[in-house]
Amino acid sequence: MDLFGKKKLEERILELEADLARLEGEKKDLMRTLDKRDERIRKLSSAIQEANLALKAAEQRASSRASPAPSEAARGESPEEQKPRARRLGLRLLNAFLVIGRRFRRLESGW
Q1: Are the CB atoms for 84 and 62 separated by under 8 Å?
Q2: Total structural domains in the chain?
């Protein structure tokens, strides 16, 4: 004879303990996923900062080349010769900037 439904309560306790173990496993998986995402965010933030610094440095180099040097003006070079010589970005570098920009926009939008 089962007094006060003791057997049913014990079965329910076992079910709840099994659910608890499953949920704890899911929690660990989710925490690992969050840690990996945080690491990716840190890496992308670092990469975008480096890209911004490289861009600023390139802009400064371009502007310093664009400003006429006193020696060139003294030599009487034409404005055509004083123009900065632009250089095309390599496909790898251009692609890297585009990828970093897209990833950064996704991070900002909360993707």
Answers
A1: yes
A2: 1
